[in-house]
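Kindly inspect this today.
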Amino acid sequence: MTRTPAKRLAEVAQKVGVSEATVSRVLNGKAGVSDSTREAVLTALDVLGYERPTRLRGQRARLIGLVLPELQNPIFPALAEVIGGALAQRGFTPVLCTRTAGGLSEADYVDLLLEQHASGVVFAGGHFAELAAPHEHYELLHERGVPVVLINAAIDGLDFPCVATDDISAASQAFGHLLALGHERIGLVLGPEDHMPSRRKLDGFRAEAQRAGLSVAPVENALFSLEGGQAATTRILRQGVTGIICGSDVLALGAIRAVRRLGLTVPGDVSVVGYDDSGWLNCTDPPLTTVRQPIESMGKAAVALLVNQMETVVPHPEELLFEPELVVRGSTGPATARPAADRPAPARAAT
């Protein structure tokens, strides 16, 4: 529940033992208040969970939290570089907060950032995109009025500005590419079932399959890791697919390893499409066909949205969707006939 300004003055005055007029003078930067009283009022604001006025936060107010789920996936360091550079150009200092196994959680990082009076927080690929994850720390930031921007598709109800790649378009482009190469048995390897970007890709995939008159091909969910991609692809290959669309480049690399472990080749037997276009994927064998996220544009837009919140105070919980781009390399090729025992005939949707 949001407290009114009048109630805030009363609570801080009671906490410090001074009049509401004195608290008002401190908050408005007026003279006539001793240094000790001024410091006591500001400390009371912190203890009671109120944001200090921007001009009273000092140098720490130039801190911006950048919360990432990991650094092993190259897409996140790439985002951090773009966002960090854009923040530095505007005079802010980014604080990198990365979740690790057994380490600090997103909620822990939010507590630390609030203690440091950070001016804002950018989340990329966090719990905000997962239906089953905890979301109380986002509600806390909303209650405190801290500017926040989310990068990736988010669950409903968080009411923060969001920057995302159009996942439906990404799935559509990948599916259309494989279909044009003659693939009729196309599988999909995604992240966890409660992951919103994965859900959007699934919607796009199903719509394209229906439009093409193909039955819905195999779909597997996995953790975003090379091992997860390999396990999911091993399951999906048993159903005779000749093309696989993956929800990340890391999953795609796992898919390629699974294909090879079964004695098949990429793209001779199975074509693989990734998602992200991580910087080093043109150096893999074969170079990976993938759907590129416009990281540079998205990162700069996220910073602009964050600064806009600081200046206008009233956030607009809009979602900016950026168009992805299919990058065709060597991991996709024409569909080739496989033995009937290995590849069932493609089923077509009823007309």
About this structure: Residues 135 and 211 are 37 Å apart (CA to CA). Confidence is low (pLDDT under 50) at residues 339-351.
